[in-house]
């Protein structure tokens, strides 16, 4: 045990439950069953657990600062989210500290420590591709810092979420390609460790299945960057597996695919139609312009920030997390509009 100071996390580890469950059990929360409450309280008494005075003092005071942890600042979607967050924070007289994980788990954990040391009042988070453990988030909560996850969430962490319905949005994008005559549609997928990667793949599969089209695993490619998409298209063409439509997990992947398709002499959308995801500014300057799913990043940022401030200003130390689902819209442009 660390420095003989028993923490909620220590009790959770011994009992094999989450720190948030221990916290709620100690506060006699109605969502926790009586057996769990009894086990937690008995162990807490046995180990002479005392609430962390530093954490409590931090929770009861405010720095008028919030933190953001995002994978990439340069990504159009995330920059739009930041814009929405900063507007709400500014209206409330708060300063924002922005941290970039650069898709690294270690850097994300380091960002969390840095924000904790800066005594921020709350943190908004979109996890990295590499994130496989959520201990750093539970440490923040143990320190009394409310968290709101947006876009990429951490399953199992007791915190609010602001997301879009990725399954439905991907279904609509794929259905659009089908309705425009595509029968061999490839999906350039994101990491399947991330819920959004799995959900976007599922939406694609749902649309194919509903239309009676086969799900061909050769047309499902793990490619979520510009370079990966360029290489993937080249390999597909060389192998003779040529799709007539591509649904890409993000716009940069779609644009990488477009570049190789056109370089190889194929026409867009006459030979191969393409739909991306994010609807960033680049979608309006490609030739032809890129059809894409608008995630409404600014609205996601304002909604996430308002949710966080509700938690910061709330007197409740425990709460039932909310999942706020925003609507995503398919914006049809020249890359998929045949005829």
Describe, in plain words, how this protein is organized in 3D:
It is a single chain. With 339 residues, this protein is an alpha/beta fold. It has twelve helices and twelve strands. The strands form two sheets. It has a six-stranded parallel sheet, with helices on both faces. Strands 7-6-8-9-10-12 form a six-stranded mixed sheet, sandwiched between helices. Helix 5 links the parallel strand 1 (65-70) and strand 2 (95-100). Helix 1 (8-15) packs across helix 2. The longest helix is centred in the last third of the chain and has 17 residues, at 297-313. The model has no long low-confidence stretch (mean pLDDT 92).
Name a few traits of the molecule.
single chain; 339 residues; alpha/beta; 6-stranded mixed β-sheet; 12 helices; 12 strands
Give the helices and strands as they follow along the chain: HHHHEHEHEHEEHEHEHEHEEHEE
* Main sheet makeup: 6 strands, parallel
Count of individual helical segments: 12
Count the E strands: 12
Helix and strand content put the structural class at alpha/beta
Distance between the termini: 69 Å
Short description:
The chain contains 12 helices and 12 strands. With about 350 residues, it is α/β, with parallel strands linked by helices.
Could you outline the blueprint of secondary structure elements for this entry?
Blueprint: H1 8-15, H2 19-26, H3 34-46, H4 53-59, E1 65-70, H5 76-91, E2 95-100, H6 105-117, E3 122-125, H7 135-142, E4 147-150, E5 160-164, H8 166-179, E6 185-189, H9 195-210, E7 220-222, H10 226-239, E8 245-248, H11 251-263, E9 273-278, E10 291-294, H12 297-313, E11 323-326, E12 329-331
Parallel strand pairs: 1-2, 1-3, 3-4, 4-5, 5-11, 6-7, 6-8, 8-9, 9-10
Antiparallel strand pairs: 10-12
Helix pairs in contact: 1-2, 2-3, 5-12, 8-9, 10-11
């Amino acid at each position: 045990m660390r420095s003989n100071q028993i923490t909620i996390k220590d009790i959770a580890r011994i009992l094999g439950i989450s720190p948030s469950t221990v916290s709620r059990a100690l506060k006699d929360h109605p969502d926790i069953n009586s057996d769990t409450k009894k086990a937690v309280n008995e162990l807490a008494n046995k180990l002479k657990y005392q609430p962390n005075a530093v954490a409590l003092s931090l929770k009861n005071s405010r720095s008028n600062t919030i933190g953001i942890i995002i994978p990439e600042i340069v990504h159009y979607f995330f920059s739009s989210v930041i814009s929405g967050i900063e507007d709400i924070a500014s209206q409330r007289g708060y300063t924002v500290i922005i941290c970039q994980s650069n898709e690294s788990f270690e850097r994300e954990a380091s960002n969390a420590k840095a924000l904790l040391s800066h005594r921020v009042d709350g943190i908004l988070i979109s996890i990295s591709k590499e994130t496989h453990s959520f201990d750093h988030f539970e440490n923040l909560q143990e320190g009394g810092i409310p968290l709101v996850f947006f876009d990429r969430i951490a399953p199992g962490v007791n915190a609010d979420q602001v997301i879009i319905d990725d399954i439905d949005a991907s279904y609509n994008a794929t259905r659009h390609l089908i309705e425009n005559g595509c029968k061999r549609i490839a999906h350039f997928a994101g990491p399947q460790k991330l819920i959004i990667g799995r959900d976007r793949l599922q939406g694609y599969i749902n649309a194919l299945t509903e239309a009676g089209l086969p799900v061909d695993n050769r047309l499902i490619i793990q490619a979520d960057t510009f370079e990966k998409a360029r290489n993937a298209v080249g390999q597909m063409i060389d192998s003779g597996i040529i799709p007539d439509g591509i649904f890409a997990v993000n716009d940069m992947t779609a644009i990488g695919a477009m570049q190789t398709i056109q370089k190889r002499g194929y026409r867009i959308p006459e030979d191969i139609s393409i739909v991306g995801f994010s609807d960033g500014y680049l979608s309006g300057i490609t030739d032809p312009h890129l059809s894409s799913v608008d995630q409404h990043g600014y609205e996601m940022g304002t909604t996430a920030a308002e949710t966080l401030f509700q938690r910061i200003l709330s007197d409740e130390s425990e709460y039932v997390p909310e999942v706020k689902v925003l609507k995503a819209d398919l914006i049809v442009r020249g890359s998929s509009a045949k005829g």
